[in-house]
C-alpha cells in the first residue's frame, strides 16, 4: 500500500479503540492538583456542608425567635474562627462575618446596616426569619451527593467546588504518557537566531512548528495526556526507528510527524506496522495509525494543518479512550440560547446546564446552590446582562465542560 | 460609602479606561515565543512565499511543455535542500518531495504513482499543466500582505502561519505586570496535608481557591498579562497595606481578593482609594476599582464565583485596554452556522472567517491559501464531515480568535 491507493474512511478509527490498552492505574491526588485529571471513582460528598448554619452576610447572629428585639453583643466570630461552643443565652448576639459558622443558640443574621448599635447592645426593629442571611446546614451539598462523576476530566471549576465543601482528595487515572517524534532533515529547531532562520526558510528549510502545534492541541484539549518527550530527528530511517522503538518501550503512545507521505522518505511505511494507513480526509490523507502490544503509533503529515486534522480525527479519539475520559474540559466563551427567562435588574452570572440540540448550544439556568460550582449537571456559567434575559435569547457562557458530543 | 449603599452600574467601568496608563513599551520577539503577545505593529510579509515554485506532491519535477514525454532522471531534491542552480535541460527530470523548491527549467510535478519508471528514465503518458502539483511563487503569501494586525493577540496558529512563510520576528507590547493579593485569616494555603485541610474546613477554615481561579482566568483569557506574584496575607490591615503598596510600586496593576465586603474586615475601604466601590452585579457586589497614578487596584470578593464575576465584568476590560489588545485569543470548539455550501466526499478541515450575528456564530469558508494559517480574516478551522455540508448547517469550529464582541 505504498501509494495510499486505498484510503480508509475516518470512521474506521473506531476499530482501533478495542485494540489499545486503557489506563488502569489509579492514584489518589490532592484536589488542588486535580485539574486536567480523569476522575477514576465518583466523587461523593462525605458530609453535609456547611455542617452548621453559616453566615451569608456580615452582621449580628441572633435567635430568630427573639426578633424584633434588643441584644447584648457578647463577642465576634470571624470567618475561619470556630466558636460553636460559644453558646448564646436569650438576648445575646455575636458579630459574624460572611462564612463564619453561627454559635449555638443563633439561627439568623441581621445585616450590620439593618441593626442599630447602642454601646454594647444592638437593636433590631423587625422580624428576621430562621436562616435569614444564613446558609443552612447541608445547603451547599448533602452527604452522599455525587459531585463529580467517574470519567469526567476535573476542571479548575471542580477544584474550587470541591475544596469549598472540604473535599481535598480524589482518585484519578494516571495520565497517558506520549512521546512525539518530529522527523525531517529540513527542520530548523528553535531557539535559533531568527534572522538566520528566516534566511534558511527562503532557501527551502522549514522551521519546526508542526509538532509544536500538535503539542499545543494536546495540552489544551487533552490535559489527561502527558507529553514526556518531543524529539526532533533527521530523516535517516535508522535514527527514526531507534527513537520510535525507545518511545514505544517507555510510553503509552507515540506520535510521529513528517515523512508520512508516499515518498522515498516514508517512515511510517518503512516501520512496517500493520494498521490503518491513509484516511479519506483533506488535508491529512497520509495520517496513519497502528497498534503494537496495545500501544498506538500515529503517523502524521509534516504540514501543520494536515497534522492538526489528523490529531483531531484520529489521535484524540484514541487517546481519550485510553485515558478513560468520558467528558473532556472546555475553556472558552460560547454563545448559547437560554431555555428559561432569567429576570433581574442587576448584571448576573448564573450556573447553567449546557446541552447540544440541532447542533446548537442551549443553556438551562440551575438553581444557585450558593457559591459552590460543582455538580455533574453544570457545564458553565452564563453572563446575564442588567435587566435579565428572556427564554430564547442568546447569552455568552463560559463553558468548563466540553461542548462537543463525543 | 461603607455599606455599598450606592452601587455602580457595571457600565461605569468605561470611566476607568481613560484613567489607566496603557502599555507603551514595545519589544522585538521571536515568533516562536509570540503566542499570547499583543502585536504592536502590523506584521507585513517582506517577500513572496514561496519565492520559487514548490512541490505540493512527491514525484518528478518536469517542464509542463514537454508532457506527455519521456524524461531522464538526473537527481533528487528533497524538502529542505536548495538546488535551484540545478538547471535542467529539455528531456530531464528530478525526483522531488513535498515542499522542495523546483529546479530552474521545471514547472510541474508528476506524482510518483502517475509516472512509469524505466531504469534512469521516467515515462509520463499524459499532459501536466504548468504548476500542476506545484505551489506557485507567492501562492502562500504576497509581499506586502498584512498577516497579523496591530492589536491582535498572537495565537499558536499565527506562530505556525508566520514561521511557515519565513517571518521569524515581530514587535509586541510588553506584558501587563500584575500582583495578586489574597487576604484572609481563614485561608489554608496548599500544598498542605489534604486530610488536615479537610478537617480545617469542617471547623470553618477556607482552602484558598479564589485567587487561584482568578489566576486561571487571567492565564487562559489574558495571556498578555503576567502574574508576577500571588501573595496570601492575613487580615491584619497593616500587612495588607504594605503588600499592596509594594505591588503598586513594582507592577502595573494590583488585584486584592477577600475582605471586600462591608464588614469589619474591609481592606479596599480601609486603603482609602477614590474610585468605584461596589457594582450592581450578583454575585460580586463588593467588586471595586480605583486608579492610582495610572495603575488600577481591584478589590474582589473572597468567594470564587463572585470574584470570577468581578474579573469578567471589571478586571478584564481594564487590563485588556492597558495591554492594547483589540482581538483576544480563543481556544475551544464552537458551534457555528456555515454561510456557504462546502461540498466534498472526504472529511475536511477548512479555515473560516467567524462572525457574530444575532448573537450566534457564523462561519464563512475561506479559499484555502495552501497550508498557511495566518490571515487577519481567519478566526478558526471548521470540521466538515465526509459528504460535505450545506449552507445553514451547523459545524464544529476550532476558534483561535475571541468569539466575543468586545
Description:
The structure is a homodimer of 406-residue chains. The first copy, chain A, is of the alpha+beta class and 406 residues long. Helices cover 17% and strands 32% of the residues of chain A. In chain A, the strands form seven sheets. The first copy, chain A, has a six-stranded mixed sheet with strand order 7-4-6-5-9-8, with no helix packed on it. Chain A has a six-stranded mixed sheet with strand order 16-13-17-21-20-18, with helices on both faces. In chain A, strands 22-24-23-25-26 form a five-stranded mixed β-barrel. In chain A, strand 14, helix 2 and strand 15 (206-207) form a beta-alpha-beta unit. In chain A, helix 3 packs parallel to helix 6. The longest helix of chain A has 20 residues, at 304-323. The radius of gyration of chain A is 29 Å and the shape is elongated. The interface between A and B is large, with 112 and 113 residues. Strand 23 (347-357) of chain A pairs parallel with strand 19 (281-282) of chain B, so a sheet runs across the interface.
Strand order of the largest sheet of chain A: 7-4-6-5-9-8
Oligomerization: homodimer
Biggest sheet character of chain A: 6 strands, mixed
Low-pLDDT stretches of chain A: none
Q: Helical content of chain A, roughly?
A: 10-25%
Largest interface: which pair? A-B, 112 and 113 residues
Mean pLDDT of chain A: 93
Indicate the overall shape of chain A. elongated
CA-atom Rg of chain A in angstroms? 29 Å
Judged by helices, strands and strand pairing, the structural class of chain A is: alpha+beta
Number of strands of chain A: 26
Q: How much of the residues of chain A is beta strand, in percent?
A: 25-35%
Tally of DSSP helical segments of chain A? 6
End-to-end Cα distance of chain A, whole Å, is 31 Å
Amino acid at each position: 500500500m505504498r501509494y495510499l491507493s486505498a484510503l480508509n474512511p475516518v470512521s474506521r478509527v473506531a476499530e482501533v479503540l478495542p485494540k489499545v490498552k486503557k489506563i488502569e492505574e489509579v492514584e489518589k491526588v490532592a484536589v488542588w492538583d486535580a485539574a486536567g485529571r480523569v476522575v477514576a471513582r465518583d466523587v461523593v460528598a462525605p458530609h453535609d456542608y456547611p455542617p452548621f448554619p453559616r453566615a451569608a452576610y456580615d452582621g449580628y447572629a441572633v435567635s430568630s425567635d427573639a426578633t424584633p428585639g434588643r441584644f447584648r453583643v457578647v463577642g465576634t466570630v470571624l470567618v475561619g474562627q470556630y466558636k460553636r461552643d460559644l453558646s448564646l443565652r436569650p438576648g445575646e448576639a455575636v458579630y459574624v462575618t460572611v462564612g463564619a459558622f453561627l454559635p449555638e443558640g443563633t439561627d439568623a443574621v441581621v445585616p450590620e446596616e439593618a441593626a442599630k448599635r447602642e454601646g454594647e447592645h444592638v437593636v433590631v426593629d423587625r422580624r428576621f426569619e430562621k436562616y435569614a442571611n444564613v446558609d443552612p446546614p447541608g445547603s451547599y451539598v448533602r452527604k452522599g451527593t455525587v459531585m463529580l462523576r467517574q470519567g469526567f476530566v476535573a476542571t479548575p471549576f471542580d477544584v474550587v467546588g470541591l475544596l469549598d465543601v472540604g473535599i481535598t482528595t480524589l482518585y484519578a487515572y494516571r495520565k497517558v504518557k506520549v512521546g512525539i517524534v518530529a522527523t525531517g532533515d529540513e527542520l530548523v529547531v528553535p531557539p535559533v537566531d531568527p534572522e538566520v532562520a528566516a534566511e534558511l526558510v527562503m532557501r527551502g528549510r522549514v522551521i519546526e512548528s508542526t509538532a509544536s502545534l500538535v503539542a499545543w492541541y494536546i495540552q489544551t484539549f487533552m490535559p489527561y495526556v502527558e507529553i514526556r518527550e518531543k524529539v526532533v530527528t533527521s530523516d535517516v530511517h535508522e535514527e527514526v526507528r531507534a527513537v520510535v522503538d525507545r518511545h514505544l518501550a517507555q510510553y503509552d503512545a507515540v506520535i510521529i510527524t513528517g515523512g508520512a507521505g508516499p515518498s522515498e522518505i516514508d517512515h511510517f511505511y518503512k516501520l512496517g506496522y500493520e494498521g490503518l494507513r491513509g484516511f479519506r480526509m483533506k488535508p491529512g490523507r497520509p495520517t496513519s495509525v497502528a497498534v503494537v502490544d496495545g500501544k498506538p503509533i500515529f503517523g502524521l503529515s509534516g504540514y501543520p494543518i494536515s497534522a492538526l486534522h489528523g490529531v483531531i480525527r484520529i489521535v484524540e479519539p484514541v487517546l481519550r479512550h485510553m485515558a478513560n475520559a468520558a467528558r473532556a474540559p472546555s475553556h472558552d466563551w460560547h454563545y448559547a440560547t437560554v431555555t428559561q427567562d432569567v429576570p433581574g435588574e442587576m448584571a448576573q452570572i448564573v450556573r447553567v446546564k449546557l446541552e447540544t440540540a440541532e447542533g446548537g448550544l442551549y443553556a438551562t439556568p440551575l438553581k444557585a446552590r450558593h457559591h459552590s460550582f460543582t455538580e455533574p449537571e453544570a457545564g458553565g456559567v452564563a453572563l446575564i446582562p442588567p435587566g435579565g434575559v428572556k427564554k430564547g435569547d442568546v447569552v455568552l457562557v463560559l463553558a468548563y465542560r466540553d461542548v462537543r458530543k463525543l
